[in-house]
Amino acid sequence: MTQFNVASNVTDLRDIPLSLVPASDVDRILGRVLPEAAPVESVSVAAFNSSI
Amino acid sequence: MNGPFTPFRQFVVKVHSRCDLACDHCYVYEHADQSWQVRPKVISDETVAWSAGRIAEHVKRHGLDRVHIVLHGGEPLLAGRARLARIMAELRGRLDALCDLDLRVHTNGVLLDDAFLDVFAEHRVLVGISLDGDRIANDRHRRYADGRSSYERVIRAVELLRRRRDLYAGLLCTMDVANDPLAVYRALCELDPPRIDFLLPHATWDAPPPRPTETAYADWLIRIFDAWIEEGARVPVRMFESILRTSRGESSLTESLGLEPADLVVIETDGAYEQADSLKVAFDGAPSTGLNVVTDDLDTVAAHTGILARQEGLGGLCDTCRACPVVESCGGGLYAHRYRTGSAFANPSVYSADLLKLITHVRHRIAMPTHALPYDTIEALAAGYGGDDDMQHLLAGQRTLRRGLLAGVHTHHSAAEGWDLLTRLDAEHRPAVDAVLDHPYVREWAARCLTGGGSPGYLANIAAAAAVKAGVDTEITLQDVDGVFHLPTLGAFEAARGTDARLLVKDERFTLAGTPDAVWHPVRKLRANGFEVILEDTDPHRHCHGHQTAGRLSEEEAGAWQRAFADAWSLIESDHPHYAAGLRGALSTVVPLTPPPVGGDASSAARHAFGSVAIALPKDAATLALLLMHEFQHVKLGAVLDMVDLYDRQHAGLYYAPWRPDLRPLEGLLQGTYAHLAVSDFWRVRRSTVAGQSDVQFALWRKHTADAIESLDTSRALTPLGLRFLAGMRRSAEPWLAEPVPREAIDAAAELAERHRAASGAE
């Protein structure tokens, strides 16, 4: 029998290394379970990366 | 001039046009553009002043809050410390008051010493170093003109930076597929860089890169990517991060990937504005704009056709690229790499096949599905029950939430040491990390931190507990929370005044370094018929239940808990097997509460503490069974609500709840109704053992539960899934209304209900 699912909008992070958890997913989780928390801001970095 | 164009936010200032190395892959000297031969060797103070002024003017005009400046070359350190200090002072002097200035220098490192670093520290300049990997890789290209190796001097420079980590920006590695990719990667990682950049060697269709196989560069990078992922991505690699980010619609971190408009301009030593440095590989004069800091402002440069051409995103790409499935990540690759005589830049990158293969591999490897709850699970839970399989779905979602919240906490400075250890363990000992993160109060702690109330440094305690479970020797400073050094799932040291917080973990044993005789309170377990839960009386984050939690229990008190739990569990298994399966699957922790001073029972579940219930030890095992079942209903429903929406979260209505003195918001009513579904069921079954009062309780709670279900139904605030869930609850509760109950019990229940409604003031 076909098993139907109710999809959530929470990305499955169980197999994602902690250091790679995307900021967008952190924000989405905060929005679901901790809406009073301020969104986590992404750190911007310089894109230029030519070697010397 | 007012655009339309993208203002510049990145400025590459060439402070010296010559180099003390003679790398044979250098794009400045060894490729098509030879303009370096006619430039001044070093930038003049006057040109620096003009440059700083132009950038400041641009920042003011466009209201830029942050700009990035990279001091570059040639080799910038050839400009000397004094001149570099003047350059940095000029830039900071003109810009610090206007915006956040991210100032960096990229160097080959051979001249770097502490005197240079002192200058960089004074002017807050981060240092990036070019290094192509291990000695073999580095010396393949990065040599002096006389053929000598640069390796030793560069490594010495990196070691200096490692000792002054606040100045260390990262390492830049130009790839050569002749090198062993893992040897290169490991050599770079050993230098502990804050970030690694892997750079494709500059090439065009006219001058393609050495290519032993069709996708040699992708294959080389894929070997590193796989190792990077398997090792937990501990060192940020900008190329990989950019592919991951662009694959989910976020911005790229590098100009060589993604569709963001270019916002970079180069200022040469003679003050000439140039387009991207990499264009030097296309043809002689390719980067030129014909504009100069003395005569032209940056808006004029921004309107240059060559600059605008790199700001067109998808529209600026050739047909082949626009039709490509990975174009959002690739972005056509680095602009310079598209060049071919005749069609100029209207081509895919000369690395197109590599980028397609690499990006596809990354996306496949990191396919990120979302959590889902099977309808069968929804139905089982809605009925009030849920078995082990259903609990596994809830546990999976909770594990994700904890990992996500932890990732949110780690940006706090005081969490750095714990995060470093935890990410290392996460890569190599995931089961141990999961076992600690599954502890209910880890999420409670994270939630406190993210709302400004917790101690982010406690992440060190979490990491330490994982290290103990993994059997990894380590040393880390613990955070004192509420007078204890707590190790989640293990126990707590008493933190007397002056206690040294350094924890030593060796051979799966652990001690406080300076206080080997510190008092240790291990967690205790409650066990019954092969089922065990933690009796949690050490975790400082357990005080979130709205009731007074008990302190550390005496052995006698713990013994009383064990006896009551064994009896309660026996009753649940025999009389309420539909609830026992879920409890066995996901109840991990029981927190003892202080008995209410006015008598009666106290129990609670906390939304962030999935898997835990808090209870004041009641007078008998049957009541403990009831409280376990009641509170675990809240635990289950909370986990469902964490994943899917059962009601409109904007709904502001308040409702009468027959178990509360106050009006409740919709979620409160839903939670209470779901809990009392189990309460009704408990008394329904209990009647066969203990009649009388059980009949009254059953009559009371089945009516209350049924009424609350109707209140929820008429709220018009449930989602379609919420209505389906409610229908499941009704299917369980409705038949109970028809079960025979003695008349006197019904009358007594009705009187109790009326008394509560009158006391609450509800109509």
In whole angstroms, how far apart are the ends of chain B? 69 Å
Largest interface here, residues on each chain? A-B, 42 and 83 residues
Quaternary arrangement of the chains shown? heterodimer
* Global shape of chain B: elongated
Strand order of the largest sheet of chain B: 6-5-4-3-2-1-7-8-9
- The mean pLDDT of chain A is 74
Please summarize the sheet with the most strands of chain B: 9 strands, mixed
Topology of chain A as a string of helices (H) and strands (E): EH
Which value, in Å, is the CA radius of gyration of chain A? Answer: 17 Å
The Cα radius of gyration of chain B reads 33 Å
- Principal-axis shape of chain A equals elongated
What is the residue-averaged pLDDT of chain B?
Answer: 93
Structural class given helices, strands, pairing of chain A? alpha+beta
Can you count the beta strands of chain A? 1
Q: Please, how many helices of chain B? A: 26
Strand content of chain A: 5-15%
Low-confidence stretches of chain A: 40-46
The percentage helix of chain B is 40-55%
Helix fraction bin of chain A = 10-25%
- Number of strand elements of chain B: 23
Short description:
The complex is a heterodimer of chains A (52) and B (763). Chain A has 52 residues and is of the alpha+beta class. Chain A is 21% helix and 13% strand.
Q: What does this protein structure show overall?
A:
The complex is a heterodimer of chains A (52) and B (763). With 52 residues, chain A is of the alpha+beta class. Chain A contains one helix and one strand; from the N terminus they run βα. Mean pLDDT of chain A is 74; it is low at 40-46. In chain B, 44% of the residues lie in helices and 14% in strands. Chain B is of the alpha/beta class. The chains are: A alpha+beta (52), B alpha/beta (763). β1 (5-11) of chain A pairs antiparallel with β10 (370-374) of chain B.
Set down the secondary structure blueprint.
The complex is a heterodimer of chains A (52) and B (763).
Chain A: E1 5-11, H1 23-33
Chain B: E1 10-14, H1 45-62, E2 66-72, H2 81-95, E3 100-107, H3 114-122, E4 125-130, H4 135-141, H5 151-163, E5 168-174, H6 181-190, E6 196-199, H7 216-230, H8 238-247, E7 264-267, E8 272-274, E9 288-292, H9 298-302, H10 305-309, H11 319-322, H12 327-330, H13 352-365, E10 370-374, H14 375-382, H15 388-409, H16 416-428, H17 430-437, H18 440-450, H19 459-470, E11 474-477, E12 484-487, E13 491-494, E14 502-506, E15 509-512, E16 520-522, E17 524-528, E18 531-535, H20 555-575, H21 577-586, E19 589-593, E20 603-604, E21 612-616, H22 621-643, E22 654-655, E23 664-665, H23 666-686, H24 693-713, H25 720-737, H26 743-760
Parallel strand pairs in B: 1-2, 1-7, 2-3, 3-4, 4-5, 5-6, 18-19, 19-21
Antiparallel strand pairs in B: 7-8, 8-9, 11-14, 12-13, 13-16, 14-15, 17-18, 20-21, 22-23
